[in-house]
Structures are given as structure tokens and as C-alpha cells.
């Protein structure tokens, strides 16, 4: 079987830390979404909803059966597609995905994107484990495939996922319709653009081992090491680079073991020396997310999103699930309806301007910061101060020092973005 080597660079990194690796009784989740540098990432909220039996839902390329009830979700996603690179739901579940290439051929036919599976898992899972079961069931039924970039030349990959909630985390890795999952009970874990599950498999596709034997990849004797058996014999350059990022991320987590905070994960996501924060001509970190998931169910989960590229020059803004969430059009990209080049077949024959208001203002601010002028330096300091205020408010909220009314919580994300835009102007 010819091994598929994709044509373009890519990278992403997900992190999770659980007690006793964290400084408090909370789970910390984080992800950088590294995508084509001209791609806009938006942050969008969808309320919980109920559906009648037989309803279908249109994902990026295909329709699937809708569930009777979906949970409220907040997503950070490439603005051209239905799914998401990362997000959270009202029950404190967080999910992020990574692209990988394995011995299984990628699906040329349009099916579910890994990003569609992220959203579907969040909409339907009340826990990380339940979301993992949702994703694997949909994967086995519909498969994964279709281009993952807004370009005429197809760019296709399989996916790994990191799922977390208030009590545990799961790593889910796939090869076509086959999959294996590892349960994370404590400590810290990261994933990158490579298979990383070895022999510690808590759940798997019912025919995973039979398939590996039938392909001649595993003799059936000895331990079953998923990563060794399903990884490509000759890795593409980008996956070799992912090994270095994966090791660097693991080392950064180990350096802070026992003291990991939300700021720790934000710092890791901003680390350019390791390659975790990508800032190149064709590829960059287009969006970032960090979440605090307290183990005490009486405390709120707090999710931070940049909604702009390069976390080293962006502000993490806090979001909390409450009733009557305030819409935030400043971080939502314009809609093009049936005229969207994504929806026309053949797809991606032209491009549209998907920049939202915050993205536009941030672009102008970054240009100013890059000049090194005094005004740019002051702007960078103002951004850092704004983020610090949000972090301090979150800490006091979790410590019981700040009691915000539901209306104030609903406006929290909106107010931070509105303030950021005013600073830029």
C-alpha cells in the first residue's frame, strides 16, 4: 500500500493538566489552532436546542442524523466550516483536535471532518467519556474525509482528539474508521500531529486488532502498541517536526508539574522557541483557547479565547456559560449564504473576506506593534494589562471573592472584546 504524504506543512498542539499536576483542584485545558495564515478563526456561541425525530444536521460536507437535544457550546473555528478546531460545552467538556497521517489511506470522498466531530462531540456529550463515545460512533458510521483547507487543492488528514472535563481526560486517536483511546486520570498530557497512544488503551474499535493483523502490521503476538503499528514507516517532514514539538510540550508540562495554572498553559501556547506558537509566512497559530475546569461542581468553568492569531500578540478573554448569553458579533465572521464558495461545487473556486471586526482591528494593531515604535509598545502593554484583569477576575470568582450577577457574567466576554477593540482604535 502506498503511503500518502500530504503536500503542505501543518501543526497543532493540545494540552491538559489534572491534579496533582495543577496548582489547584482544577483541570486545565489548552490548545493552539495552527492553520493557513490567511484563514480567519471566529468564536461563536450556540444555545442548547431540541429537535424532532428524523431531523438531519448539515455538517461541513455531509448531513448526519440529528440528536433530540444539543448542549450549549462555544466554539473557536475556521470561519468557512461548520465544525470547530476547539471548544467547550455547558457541562464543562472541552475538545480539541489534531491532524495526523497513518497507514490507513485518507478519505478522498467528502465525509465528516475531524472539526465536525469536535462540534458533534460537544453538542452531544455531557462528559469527556460520553463525547468520546459520540465521536467514535459517528466516525464508524460516517467516516472521516474531505478537504480541511479553503483551497482548490485537497488537503486531507485523519484526526486525534484531546477531551477533558472536570474529573478526567481522554486521548482519542484515529486511523480511518479505526480508533484507540487512552484515559488520563491524573498528571499532564499533550498531543501533537502524531499518534501517541502506545499500549495503555482503555477503549478501541472492536475490529482494530483484527484489521492490523489482516494488513500484516501486527503478528498478533505480544503487546499491541497502537502508535507503533499504525504510524507511517516513513514520516512526512511535518510529522517529524511534530515529534520535536510534542517532546518540547511534554517537557514544558513536566517543568511546571504540581504548579500548573491557566497562566502556565497560556505561556506554553505562546512559546515560539519550541514551535508550539507558530508564526511563519504560510502557517500560523490562528486561534488559541485555555479553560479552567474546577473539580468542585459548584464553581463555574471559565474558558479563555483569543479570536485572533498569534497568542503572543493576542488577548485571552474569559467566557462563562450562563442563561441569556450576549451575542458577540465582533468575533463572528460575515455570512455569505448560498453564494459562499465553500457551498458551491466544485468548491473553493474563489475566496471571500471572512475577517470579523476584532480580527481587522487586531491586524492593524499588530502592524503597529511590529514597528517597535513607542506607541506599539504601549499597545502591547495595554493588551497584557487587559488580559491580566480578566485573569484576576476569574481567580477571584473561583475563590469566591467576586460574586457577579448572571447578567454580568453573560456580558463578560462581550465587554472584554468591546474594550479590546476600543484600545485598538
UniProtKB/TrEMBL annotation:
Gene3D superfamilies: Penicillin V Acylase, Chain A
InterPro entries the UniProt entry points to: Peptidase_C69
GO biological process: proteolysis
Pfam families (alphabetical): Peptidase_C69
Molecular function, one GO term: dipeptidase activity
Recorded family membership: Belongs to the peptidase C69 family. Secernin subfamily.
Protein name from the UniProt record: Secernin-2
Taxonomic placement: Eukaryota, Metazoa, Chordata, Craniata, Vertebrata
Gene name of this polypeptide: SCRN2
